Amino acid sequence: STETHSQRREQYLLDLALLEEFLPKQINVLDFGCSSGEYLDSMPEDWQKSGYEVNPELVTILKTSRPNYAIYNNLRDIKGDFDLITLRGVIEHIPEHSNLIEFLNNRLRVGGFVYLSATPDFSSPCAVQYKSKWGQIVTPEHIHQFTPASLQILLSESGLVMKALYHPYVGTPYENWK
Questions:
Q1: How does pLDDT run along the chain (178 residues), one tens digit per residue?
Q2: pTM of the model as a whole
Q3: CB 169 within 8 A of CB 125
Q4: Phi and psi for 65 in degrees, rounded to 5?
């Protein structure tokens, strides 16, 4: 819907404001699961932007509509190291994570960041409050349900350590107490 699209774009800016606190001004970023490319579009102009997407139709559109971005549909084709790898609403959709872990081991620059966002947190206040009626229990799309502990166990396979955890809800475009 138009409202959801607008909410998502507003949330992108909130995510980026948080990221910019941790990152230098000019970075090399890969949006893993970049979908339509709108998250990359919202990132600062001086960032070198790359996207990885498995949907062939979206890849074709991205390569045509965003010639300044490096767009990939095969992990083996991605060369170089990244200061930031983002996974926005992606990790819960990946059936098996070994390729992701190997990729992070090989392509994340030492001192770089992985930013997971829009990832359902099974221990979040909303999950606890709404239980089986929680809106993020979506089958078959959400293959995995994570908690901070289970994400840390998965990411530790790449030597990554969770630096911060936020449950942004209040003050976000998704806030809805009804």
A1: 787 788 888 888 888 888 888 887 889 999 999 999 999 999 999 999 999 999 999 999 999 999 999 999 999 999 999 999 999 989 999 999 999 999 999 999 999 999 998 888 888 888 888 888 877 877 778 888 899 999 999 989 888 888 888 777 667 777 776 6
A2: 0.89
A3: yes
A4: -85, -15
